[in-house]
Amino acid sequence: MTKLENSFYERPDVLKIAQELLGKLLVTEIGGRRTSGRIVETEAYRGATDRASHAWNNRRTRRTEVMYGAGGVAYVYLCYGIHHLFNVVTNVKDVPHAVLVRGLEPVEGIDTMLWRCGKQKLDTTLTAGPGSLSKALGITTELTGESLSGNVLWIEDALRVPRKEIVAGTRVGVAYALDDAYLPYRFSVRGNPWVSKGKGL
């Protein structure tokens, strides 16, 4: 399968991109180990106008600066000092849109994923949830800014999920965003067991 090109990420509609990422294959090649999973859940963040975004009101910090670059790179941040959360930067330079990947269905390198997570057997806790999937694929904040067209972390074109199979709901853990917390910006594949158990508002 071919890697998604930068033109996929640099489009203006982050909601459309978040939905079109469903079914695609997220891949890492770290320490000679290839691991991958099919994306089954995403959340869109619309930058400066979105109170749930780290870039709300054009906030620029050392952490968020990567969001202001052109789309097609990784934005990985630490949540609660524990979980590394992987986001895809989208749109063009100075428009800080991003898509959080929340759930993956494991495809390749499952033994490696289990080893990284200290698990003995495969179940949905392995990659259902943004912190879990990053750990399983070896994604850490060291990869923030990494090109998604490189050889460490990338997304391959794969299935296109039909619109009727996409469920929209509210995002998880963004109650601080006031009215924006209720926006239906979380997308998942209907009935897929690898969708996280996180409850939106």
From TrEMBL:
Superkingdom of this entry's organism? Answer: Bacteria
**Database matches in InterPro entries:** Formyl_transferase-like_C_sf, MPG, MPG_sf
Q: Does the keyword Hydrolase apply?
A: yes
Please state what the protein is called: Putative 3-methyladenine DNA glycosylase
Q: Which UniProt keywords apply?
A: DNA damage, DNA repair, Hydrolase, Membrane, Transmembrane, Transmembrane helix
Recorded family membership: Belongs to the DNA glycosylase MPG family.
> Does ATP-binding show up as a keyword for this record?
no
Q: Which residues cross the membrane?
A: 66-86
Q: Which organism is it from?
A: Chitinophaga cymbidii
Tell me the Gene Ontology biological-process terms attached to this UniProt entry. Answer: base-excision repair
GO molecular function terms noted in the UniProt entry: alkylbase DNA N-glycosylase activity; DNA binding
Record CDD domains: AAG
* Its EC number(s): 3.2.2.-
Task: Please state what class of enzyme this protein is.
Answer: hydrolase
